């Protein structure tokens, strides 16, 4: 079967329409689905066709607003809410236990949630907040619900795990400070560097998950594009994005920054979740709705670093992630 070619301008609706037959019957869990974010738009378009869409967030009231907005457009959508605070390992374990109590297998997990860009702060587990919410919490969550993901596999279908990363994975001081991941040091903290390292961890985890699962799970990471979402509008995000030249003095997008709309930003996530054309390239990094491994930083291309981020995160959560 032939599918349309996608690009920078493709929207999530266009991708979901193209893969409607693949999405039908699938159960999908998406983290970080607040309104005015790419996670919401991802859930919105998938809900038109999927058997079940599980939306998550740490704020139950905001989660309810997301469900209402999706059902206003797709009244017959099967939506299930899950309260999930990725900044707390105990909360992650609780949410995962709830998922594991449900009868359905899970065909696709989309790790979309991320923390705001803020000054240095520690979580209840004494982890840096961005790294905890954007990498360590999702790693543990993926590990704990892996049996649900594996249960969706069949001779004709390989379940997928998607990590929403960023082109920023190679910015700043490229790489990951593994010692600082385990024991955060406020004296060397820089908000954007924490963001970059979190996104690098996402790229590395996708590669290593694909490798370690031996064909049982296909994992992908992606750059959604520069998008004026909550992260750019709250916390230290506006000032940092202004410093990088993406926002003007009024903290609004500069025309020359070539930013995407939210529907365009969610498109690459939907491609990573369903496009059969990337089936034979697990671990790939996507940009503008296509595989773009040539854009992966040198640090994130090194298999040794993928192994190290995996082992370091296992040490932090106190559990091995095996198959």
Automatic annotation (TrEMBL):
<keyword id="KW-0560">Oxidoreductase</keyword>
<protein>
    <submittedName>
        <fullName>Short-chain dehydrogenase/reductase family protein</fullName>
    </submittedName>
</protein>
<dbReference type="InterPro" id="IPR036291">
    <property type="entry name" value="NAD(P)-bd_dom_sf"/>
</dbReference>
<dbReference type="Pfam" id="PF00106">
    <property type="entry name" value="adh_short"/>
</dbReference>
<comment type="similarity">
    <text>Belongs to the short-chain dehydrogenases/reductases (SDR) family.</text>
</comment>
<dbReference type="InterPro" id="IPR002347">
    <property type="entry name" value="SDR_fam"/>
</dbReference>
<dbReference type="GO" id="GO:0016491">
    <property type="term" value="F:oxidoreductase activity"/>
</dbReference>
């Amino acid at each position: 079967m032939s599918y349309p070619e996608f690009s920078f301008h493709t929207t999530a609706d266009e991708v979901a329409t193209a893969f409607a037959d693949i999405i039908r019957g699938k159960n999908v869990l998406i983290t970080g689905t607040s309104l005015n974010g790419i996670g919401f738009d991802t859930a919105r378009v998938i809900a038109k066709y999927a058997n079940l869409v599980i939306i998550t967030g740490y704020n139950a009231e905001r989660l309810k607003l997301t469900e209402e907005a999706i059902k206003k457009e797709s009244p017959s959508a099967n939506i299930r809410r899950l309260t999930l605070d990725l900044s707390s390992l105990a909360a992650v374990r609780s949410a995962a236990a709830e998922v594991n109590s449900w009868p359905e297998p899970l065909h696709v997990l989309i790790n979309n949630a991320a923390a705001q860009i803020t000054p240095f702060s520690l979580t209840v587990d004494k982890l840096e907040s961005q790294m905890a919410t954007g990498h360590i919490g999702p790693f543990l969550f993926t590990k704990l619900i892996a049996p649900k993901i594996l249960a969706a596999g069949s001779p004709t279908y390989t379940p997928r795990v998607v990590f929403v990363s960023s082109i920023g994975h190679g910015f700043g001081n490229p790489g990951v400070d593994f010692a600082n991941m385990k024991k955060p040091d406020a004296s060397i903290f820089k908000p954007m560097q924490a963001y970059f390292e979190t996104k690098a961890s996402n790229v590395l985890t996708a590669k290593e998950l694909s490798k370690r699962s031996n064909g049982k799970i296909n994992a992908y990471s992606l750059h959604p594009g520069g998008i004026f979402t909550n992260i750019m509008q709250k916390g230290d995000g506006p000032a940092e994005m202004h410093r990088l030249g993406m926002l003007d003095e009024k903290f609004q997008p500069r025309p020359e920054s070539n930013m995407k709309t939210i529907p365009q930003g969610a498109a690459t996530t939907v491609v990573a979740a369903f496009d059969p054309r990337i089936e034979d390239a697990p671990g790939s990094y996507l940009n503008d709705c296509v595989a773009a491994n040539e854009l992966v930083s040198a640090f994130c291309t090194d298999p040794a670093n993928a192994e190290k981020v995996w082992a370091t995160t296992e040490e932090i959560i106190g559990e091995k992630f095996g198959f």
